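Q: Predict the assembly, please.
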Amino acid sequence: METIELAIQVLDSGLRLTALLLFACLAGLFSERSGIFDIGLEGKLLGAAFAAGAGAAVTGSAWLGLLCGIGVSVVLSLMHGLASITFRGNQIISGVAINFLAAGMAILFGQAWFGRGGNTPSVTGAAKFNDISLPLVDTLNNVPVIGMLYRELISGHTILVYIAFAFVPLTWFILFRTRFGLRLRAVGECPEAVDTAGISVIWLRYRAVIICGILCGFGGAYLSISQNSFFVRDMSAGKGFVALAALIFARWMPFNALVSCLLFGILEASAIAFQGITIPGIGEIPVQFIQALPYILTVILLAGFVGKAVPPKAGGVPYVKER
Amino acid sequence: MQTQTTATRQQLPDAAGEPPAIELIGINKSFGNVRANRDIDLSIKKGSIHGIVGENGAGKSTLMSILYGFYQADSGEIKVNGKKVHIAGPRAAIAAGIGMVHQHFMLVENISVLENVVLGAEDGPWLKGSLDRARTHLEKLAREYELEVDPDALICDLSVGFQQRVEILKALYRGADILILDEPTGVLTPSQADHLFQIFEQLKQQGKTIILITHKLREIMAVTDTVSVMRQGAMTAEVKTSETSPAQLAELMVGRPILMRVEKTKSQPGEPILQVDDLRVFNQQGVERIKGISLSVHAGEIVGVAGVAGNGQSELLETIAGIRHAKSGTVRIGGVAAGVTGNSNAKTLRHLGVSHVPEDRHKMGMIGPFEEWENSVLGLHDEPENSGGFIMKIQTILQHADDQMQRYDIRPPNVHLRAENFSGGNQQKIVLAREIDREPQLLLIGQPTRGVDIGAIEFIHKQIIELRDRGNAILLVSVELEEIMSLSDRIIVMFDGHISGERDPEFTNEKELGLLMAGINEAAQ
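A: Predicted assembly structure:
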């Protein structure tokens, strides 16, 4: 019985970690499908986390906090767009710059405004996204297995977790069932074809980058006012990069992204759960090793199991008209 | 979209009183100091096939880009069906009924034919309706013009011939009445090209106007009604095809009489220099590209390898050059085994007396941002004559480069100019000079005249033949059948990694070679 409870606990916290990865991963999907590599997911998450934390603390509304997070993240996205689309700069360098910028600015403003070493004040009540209980929990409570799974796993998350998972089919629909999606897929593979069809490559890529910013905004807000109740420096802790790895692992497909984010999320949750565990014959596994495990597995998965993950062909290449 | 109906100049209606499909009046376009188009006047009759010929850099592509809205002319006006139009971009061109099939296809490889056709011409924000409509419309077009393509196939799974059909369908789907095709036969076998020309005829009968840009005079003579010649940015002549000849067109293009046939004596083959035995080569994806090829090239002989691009010719050249390794089989140079299954590389082959002028000179033959003298020693930089171990003998190299520029007529004769700033023909001469000057036993040469103007082609062909006459062996790979036929002493045709036939150029013709290129060996049946 204890094992089952532990497993459910791991899965439950795995889902919470997955939600964050999903926001960032789908954000990257939109950007990279359009041909703009985005190594700045991490920075956008962090910038948005700070803005959401600060916004929620000041206004007392979680939704306004979310809006602040999205705003800052979109501004950072547009900076990346300006550098890499309009000025045709190197997308990796621009992304790295955004990571540094966001990390530094968050602490600078945090210290100036709140004076808590860069943290934002702790928020409670309406200033935070709280766990919601889904309907029918009580009705299903008596049904064996399903009732428990529903109560422990499906129900009892914040609204942002459900939004994150809802973005998966939505992204798929946009990508494969709409005009915008067709153009988005095309512009990342062969911008010349888009240009000769009379569609603006620049505007299309800007829209993709803005969507990326919005999704990172959700991710950041989730970090600071849903998973936690305030912003702490460097709280994104490399999740933006893990999301990027998950994106490659998913081969830039929305439902694959769900699977790979779940994988990385649950891996990390189990790492937390297994800290200090003793394996017979070997002894206690060092905490550091358990913490490193998801990253080691990331490397192994990416190196060994992805096979040839073909990124969008025009990715990373600024569009210049021929001749 | 930006169509304006105010006609400012007098229209030139033809005998039937119909205005021309396209009329260009006084088009000028400059890029910096270069005048790409100067005072171009052009009038193309509705329902005709009009050819535009000219050397590389003559301004054909610029002119067509202006017509398709990629560039804006500095001055001049464009009329479509007698109405003055302002073509601000491809969208405006499409709206004016102009469609373009680019030399490099504008297709997204990992999406379906249907999605490619619909891209940019969708009915609304949701795809389904657009795709359904396109499906029925494509069926209709396929029936009318014999342009059948599986609408659900991915572009990357289609052969180039079918990809080209998709490009044509794309233009027709957008309602194009005027179709511009830029070098459409470069990637086709002769029989595929003939099929394309049949499609042209059908389009013409339906009242469509076709503009064909090409450097192949044979095609111009075969399909066009009228032809314009461009030279150095200006329109130098416009003639009826029935009243001209290839020789006259060539002269108009270059500005001086051109030898159309390469003059050479019969070859005197000596002992075998290159012996390839049962060679098998796989590419990085593990696909077998050369499936057991045996061939030999003798001293004083040019062996031409014909075939549609991508049938293993590139892999053959690269394996013999040492750039690629074979799975099995042997390559011997002058009787010495080259070790192509394991330890060969470009340097070991070079030391066996092999020179290589690669197919893609920009990628493998030169370094664009390097100066000419640096390019003149690429691969030879650590030979004793160029290097004293650690320090390069710069003075010797400079002198040698300067001397080469004189002998190979490389212009401008400035060893400090970056290679990328030379014209295509002169770049090729830089590579050729480097490789031929070593007096190699065996010269491997791929696409010797791709992107090279007619004047330089003549020179390059002469160099190759002189090398042969000095008793060296040459293996030539080219997709230009005319070039293979006029240079080779023996012709090998490759199809799908096999040799599908070997012919004596004296006793064969383009038709027979074309069938072999498609893998059909009539003599064997």
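Chain B touches chain A at residues 61-62, 65, 68, 70, 89-94, 100, 102, 104, 106-111, 115-116, 118-122, 124-128, 130 (CB under 8 Å). The domain at 272-367+440-524 of chain B is CATH 3.40.50.300 (Rossmann fold).
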